[in-house]
Amino acid sequence: MAYNPASYEARRRGYMNDYASTGAMNAYTQFLSQQRGQRDFADMNKAYDKAAPQLVASYGRRGLNSPNVGSGAFQQGLQDFASERVAKTAAARQTLDTQNSMDALQNKQLGDRYQQSLSDLEAEKAQQIANDAQELLKLRMGG
Amino acid sequence: MAARGADASERSTGIRRSSIYPEKPKVVASTTGPSTTGAVQPPMQKPGFNVNAGLSNQQNIRASDVYGANNYTTPWADAEAKAQAIADAALAQQSAFQSSLKNVGGAGGTGNAGANWQSMYDTAQKNLGAGYDQAKTLTDQGYAALQTYLQNNPNNPYAGFTQQVQPVTNPMQQFLSAYGTSNDPVQAQVKAEQFAGEQGAGAFNSLVDILSRSAQGSDASRLAEMQMGQTMAGSGLEAMRGNYQSQNALELLKKRLGAK
Fold this sequence. Notes:
The complex is a heterodimer of chains A (143) and B (260). By secondary structure, chain A is mostly helical.
């Protein structure tokens, strides 16, 4: 096959279109996923913010907490509540961060495949030109 | 029975040989040729069309009599003329071809033809040199373009890509302090979560590092592959040139030996 720039351009456009369409689709799904993750994270914090006064009130109703009385059970309860919140929100944050990192990695891998395809294409072109040069020499010498 | 040696007339009149083996009629050699008597030959006829059918010799009618008298031409006259023209042209071409062959044969077969073979050899070598230069230039240009592309587009998409660890905080620090509660147990949880987060990010970054090294290795391998491809292509062209040079030299040697 003789060197045909048009065929290489067509393939390059194909790679580019695939990269663009797949990248756009990934970006959209990643945006939705991150948005959902952020919302869940915010909802979790809101829930803890709302639950904290209720927790204090529940100890108060049982007489375990008042302006003059601060029982050990109340303090332990608050510490456990705060620790749980830290653990849950940290886990949610890490999940969200990991998801973001995986999305970014997916984009990097997509870009890597795109670049590899383009490099392969350029290498094929060089190889084809070299082959054609040899054929031209043969042709020039009478086949 | 007559005695041996007696005259034939004295022999008994037995069965004659000729009566058993009758003589074959003698063949007399004769020459034939075109009639020079001026006798009118019957006209050529097309198969299946005999204008003289049923007529005597004196009544024979030639086709030309019929068509000529009426200013007609025979239906096949044009075809015959064309065939003749084609045959004449073919003969002329054949003569020209044979003449050119004689010239070629003469050039190769005579002693003073050595200069011609040498000239043809020189032309072939010059053509080979030009062809090689062209092929080498094309090959080098192709690989130079590839090298430029690869150098301008280093493929390491993971370079500088790391997962950052978000600092873990205690959002209830002030809340607990407001109720006179110690934050120490919570801070311990914060540290534990921070450590876990760092470990997770470290594992992820290790993965990215591996991918990055792989991409760098792939890039380096591609560059080396390109350089090897260019070397191989150049060597292939060199080998072809050497082969053609040898063929040309061998042909020249054959012609010179053949000429002697």
